[in-house]
Amino acid sequence: MEILNREKLKEVLQRWKEHPSITGLMEKFSQLQSYTNKNYKNLELYTKQKIKESKYELVELPYIDVKEDPVRPELDLAFRQSYGRKIYGLKDDVGEISAVMCFAFTNEVPKTVEEMDSLSYDAALQSVHRAGIQGSIAIAYTVWAKKKGGGRAIVNEVYKMVKKSNHLNRLVTLSPLTKMARNFHIKNGAKELQVNEKSQNFEYDITLEDWETALVKAKGFLKVK
Q1: pLDDT confidence of 118, banded at 50, 70, 90?
Q2: Could you state, in order of their start, the residue ranges of all structural domains in the chain?
Q3: In terms of CB atoms within 10 Å, which of 47, 66, 179, 202 comes out highest?
Q4: What are the φ and ψ backbone dihedral angles of 105, each rounded to 5 degrees?
Q5: Local confidence band at 207 (pLDDT 50, 70, 90 cut-offs)
């Protein structure tokens, strides 16, 4: 019984490995690499499940209870909705918010909340002369899940949003100096950008054209729409 293109499958999966929306596909790699023609249908069904269309919708929120924020509860609603800032929620298939992520849009990577405040304000003022286009860097400065799996899911949806944007070219975090924050972003595919005195920055790669090409080919090979 022949192995089903194990080496080619391994090569494609390695390309997918660091991408936040495909991390689930790697969880059972030891099983995937040993699949044979006999259980190809199982591989096909498993892959379809992992890369099917998302059941979530990313929406801009007009209001949140900042006391629910476990990362930066000291930042009030006015700060989060000021110049060059937005709040996004992840609406699930029953219409409930399963996660929240707050953003500032800047043209430089901030190391502190104070820097982010100033940089996002400056970028917002500059946008007046650029047809309303704000900063080119999306700074995610807090994220929390309200339901199980919401944290990873909102990272995936935000990634898609930034990828499709006409003016955003980077997705970077302004995270607290905690092991939890580091583990969360590394697990979801980010790379450490820098460690600062009071914060750390992680960056999600949004320029994975090689990966996208591999995905299209893999979908065709596995007959996944």
Answers
A1: very high
A2: 6-53+208-222, 57-174
A3: 202
A4: -110, 120
A5: confident
| pLDDT of 57 over the 80 cut | yes
Distances (CA, A) of 3 to 8, 31, 217: 11, 12, 19
CA distance 194 to 203: 9
Closest CA to 171 of 126, 201, 150: 201
Q: Is 71 helix (H, G, I), strand (E, B) or coil?
A: coil
Domain covering 57-174 assigned CATH 3.40.630.150 in the classification: yes
Instruction: Give the pLDDT of residue 53.
Output: 43
Q: What are the phi and psi torsion angles at 212 (to 5°)? A: -65, -40
Strand, helix or coil at 165?
coil
Helix extents (H) in 34-190? 40-50, 77-80, 113-127, 150-164, 179-187
pLDDT per position as a tens digit, 131-174: 556 789 999 999 999 999 899 999 999 998 998 888 899 999 99
